[in-house]
From TrEMBL:
<keyword id="KW-0963">Cytoplasm</keyword>
<dbReference type="InterPro" id="IPR001085">
    <property type="entry name" value="Ser_HO-MeTrfase"/>
</dbReference>
<dbReference type="InterPro" id="IPR019798">
    <property type="entry name" value="Ser_HO-MeTrfase_PLP_BS"/>
</dbReference>
<comment type="function">
    <text>Catalyzes the reversible interconversion of serine and glycine with tetrahydrofolate (THF) serving as the one-carbon carrier. This reaction serves as the major source of one-carbon groups required for the biosynthesis of purines, thymidylate, methionine, and other important biomolecules. Also exhibits THF-independent aldolase activity toward beta-hydroxyamino acids, producing glycine and aldehydes, via a retro-aldol mechanism.</text>
</comment>
<feature type="site" description="Plays an important role in substrate specificity">
    <location>
        <position position="285"/>
    </location>
</feature>
<dbReference type="InterPro" id="IPR015422">
    <property type="entry name" value="PyrdxlP-dep_Trfase_small"/>
</dbReference>
<feature type="binding site">
    <location>
        <begin position="178"/>
        <end position="180"/>
    </location>
    <ligand>
        <name>(6S)-5,6,7,8-tetrahydrofolate</name>
    </ligand>
</feature>
<dbReference type="GO" id="GO:0035999">
    <property type="term" value="P:tetrahydrofolate interconversion"/>
</dbReference>
<dbReference type="InterPro" id="IPR049943">
    <property type="entry name" value="Ser_HO-MeTrfase-like"/>
</dbReference>
<protein>
    <recommendedName>
        <fullName>Serine hydroxymethyltransferase</fullName>
        <ecNumber>2.1.2.1</ecNumber>
    </recommendedName>
</protein>
<dbReference type="InterPro" id="IPR015424">
    <property type="entry name" value="PyrdxlP-dep_Trfase"/>
</dbReference>
<dbReference type="Pfam" id="PF00464">
    <property type="entry name" value="SHMT"/>
</dbReference>
<dbReference type="InterPro" id="IPR039429">
    <property type="entry name" value="SHMT-like_dom"/>
</dbReference>
<keyword id="KW-0489">Methyltransferase</keyword>
<comment type="pathway">
    <text>Amino-acid biosynthesis; glycine biosynthesis; glycine from L-serine: step 1/1.</text>
</comment>
<dbReference type="GO" id="GO:0032259">
    <property type="term" value="P:methylation"/>
</dbReference>
<feature type="domain" description="Serine hydroxymethyltransferase-like">
    <location>
        <begin position="31"/>
        <end position="135"/>
    </location>
</feature>
Amino acid sequence: MSTPLENYLKEAGSSLNAAMTAYVANLQTVSQVAPEIAADVVNELENQRSHLKLVASENYCSLSTQLAMGNLLTDKYAEGFPEHRYYGGCVNIDAVENTAAREAEKLFGADYAYVQPHSGADANLVAYWAILSKTVEMPTLEELGVKSLAELSGEQFDMLRKRFGNQRLMGLDYSCGGHLTHGYKMNVSARMFESHPYGVDEKTGLLDYDAIEKQAMEVKPLILLTGFSAYPRKINFKRFRQIADKCGAVLMVDMAHFAGLVAGKVFTGEYNPVEWADVVTSTTHKTLRGPRGALILCKKEFTDYVNKGCPMVLGGPLGHVMAAKAVALKEANTQAYRDYASNVVKNAQALAKSCMDKGMILQTGGTENHLMLIDVTTYGLTGKQAEAALFKCGVTANANALPYDKNGAWWTSGIRIGTPGLTTLGMNEKDMEEVASIIDLVLKGTKPGLTKEGKPAKGKIELDPAVEADAKKRVQSLLSKHVLYPELDLQFLKKEFVK
Ligand code: PLP
């Protein structure tokens, strides 16, 4: 019996392409051990091809980036940092890490880049500990008058906790668009620090810089943190720098969401965090369009502390993912990528306008970045209901709390949508009108479902079947013009790997 690769080579003839060949070879090799995993990969391709990806934090990385991850670089331990490893034989991992780090420095104009963090949450933990290590000096055992920490009295230990831990962190409140790791009460960041979140203006939904300055002068945080998961506007980092300087804080920015807009030179001057912040963290898989992972950029004086990410927080770095970061960072330093970043914002603004033309209420009245928050209570729905109805019709979005949301953080009153994925597929401002029209159609055709007792249930929906059919057709029509990874022949992959 011939193998999938042999079948592909025979079928493709002279129209053989390298990416498809690599995918078939990869899946064939995987399926020899775990056919169900090969099938999952193919099924995920089908799922992503048949849904409009409006999740603002997701994207589609290039096949070059993906293929850089599937190799033996995963086998090497390399704790430490280049030329300072806890293991021997790291010369090639050093080369990979150095390439990725230098690419990041070049792309963002940063003094130093650390590309080891496995995720955005890890990157923030490394940044917190780096800032603590640099700014809060631990007394020596001698100064404490003990031979080991175990000998400390309760009082001494408390004093140490106050000096080294329990410093103050001031980040954007989770309910106003900040991330869990920015001091949310259920996250370790709120255990490490005394968390003093700031909010947005209740009427406008915007950051109120004067109010943040007033709060910062009262709180005197060790770290003033800005950046967001759900805020549809630019942030003025120059203004944040002034506030940090005035209250004596370290300025940290988490640009996980909008790193691609910084890389693509859409956010420049006072809107470019790298120019103003001491430490900048970012994921690499959202607007930046790289592999799942993260990085840290910092001013020179933080380098030694950030480099201690391992052993302070991290274990061994993921060599294969750092390789993929290097590929994605190189891609981001091209005119094609800068055009992409600028189209992400143009598309977001076109989508926001079309949504508002349909009568939707958008948080802050629009967007200046890649995402927007839509109040779905005007359709009589919760965010969870809107999310479920849209998904049934082939649109992936996520429920998201609006600031000071009466429906709370689980059911929510809003959905968050964004354009990084659709723009990667090549969609334009005209397509965004159709996307807004599909969203409106689906939400108008959805009613809250009922509990057994006949009361409206916050999580259930009743979706008009005619609306569902129409919306699905329109979604598929849009997607058929903008195929995800057109190099990959889905029907062939299904035939060979999904039994
Ligand atoms: N920071 C921000 C602003 C985010 O939006 C996210 C994820 O959504 C993270 C950090 C965490 O990233 P990860 O999921 O890679 O840990």
